[in-house]
Amino acid sequence: MTGLRVAFVLGTVTGGTGEHVAMLARGGQERGLAVTVYGPAQAGRRFFPRDPPGPGAVTFVPVEIADRPRPARDAAALLRLRKLLAGTQPDVVHAHGLRAGAVAAFALAGARRRRPRRCALVVTVHNAPPAAGPAAAVYAALERVVARRADAVICVSGDLAARMRRLGAAEAGLAIVPAPPARAPGSEAVAAARSDLGGAGQPAVLAVGRLAPQKGLATLLAAAASWQGREPCPVLALAGAGPLDQALRAEAEAGRIRTRFLGQRGDVPALLAAADVVVVPSRWEGQPLIVQEALRAGRPLVASRTGGIPDLTGEDAAVLVPPGDAAALAAAVLAVLDDPGLAARLSEAARARAAALPGVDAAVDAAVVLYQRVAGRPAGV
């Protein structure tokens, strides 16, 4: 398949979304697509560093799409993207996130008037919009724009797909968002990680992710407060960085909760291998990479029953609890720590589940088939 031009558009992104776009862009380029990525310079530096020329090299062009409403900056980004799309004339634009999707939709509305051939728009919805607060109305409007103007919407969870269909999306399916492959850590790396988690004899409870409200870490701290009288006392380790760093540290110190703040780490596979329990206490998630990584590592997992998490774990590969319920979260963690049989069953089910999840090739192949269809190209052409 040659000649299909695909433009990816993304806004300000963190780990999961940026890695997913990089995977699709590079995989598509390797399969013969002509790929260009438009997004903030920060995303380019992190996810698309300059590659040596070759079949997997991807062109990245800076377009500063902000992470929150900023009228002047948004208008400038829209006009720049419109000009770029009119010049490159892609067959498909694939935007990631509601803000990038809306900017792409408005940019194409102008670019389409300048070109004889129509460009198709695909939007991946990676997160649920805020349910309340000043941003809720803005995101509700963005959802309507995306639902009504995109040729296809793909979502990271079934609840988001149902929501977009209710808003009028002609097509709303499920995205495949696999965790990237990773090497199994060596024994020395696992031993070093175990020391960082608290050392031998100390049960280690690990959470990995951005220190942000969505991740439910305040609920996890409240759960950890309830087990501080136990001997040996489980140590809670948080790996990640984000806007709640100082607030969470202050809360842990005030409650005298045994917590280790590990910061941003590059050895997550080793941390997972060293942990006794992995916890994902999020308020909402799509297909979080850390859940997939924990399954692949065969770790006992406790997670929120929300968004796309149950679709990843099934009912056997994790103990699922209601989001925001500190008591249920604490009880689940302690049940795993106190019952070696339960921990072993979860580990076995996790590895089996991970083996059944689709991988990178399946995700890229599915995207290419979608691009061909919305662009009106026969498969394989």
Report on the architecture of this protein.
It is built from 15 helices and 13 strands. It folds into 2 domains: 5-178 and 359-374, Rossmann fold (3-Layer(aba) Sandwich), CATH 3.40.50; 187-356, Glycogen Phosphorylase B (Rossmann fold, 3-Layer(aba) Sandwich). The mean pLDDT is 91. With 381 residues, it is α/β, with parallel strands linked by helices. The strands form 2 sheets. It has a 7-stranded parallel sheet with strand order 3-2-1-4-5-6-7, sandwiched between helices. A 6-stranded parallel sheet has the order 10-9-8-11-12-13, with helices on both faces. The protein is elongated and about 70 Å long.
Describe this protein with a few key phrases.
alpha/beta, 7-stranded parallel β-sheet
> Could you state the CATH homologous superfamily of the largest domain?
Glycogen Phosphorylase B
Kindly, what is the distance between the CA atoms of the first and last residues, rounded to a whole number of angstroms?
4 Å
Order of helices and strands: EHEHEHEHEHEHEHEHEHEHEHEHEHHH
What's the pLDDT, averaged over the residues? Answer: 91
The assigned structural class equals: alpha/beta
Number of E strands: 13
The DSSP helix count reads 15
CATH topology of the largest domain: Rossmann fold
Contiguous uncertain segments of 5+ residues: none
CATH class of the largest domain: Alpha Beta
What's the alpha carbon Rg, rounded to whole Å?
A: 22 Å
What count of domains describes the coordinates? 2
Helix content: 40-55%
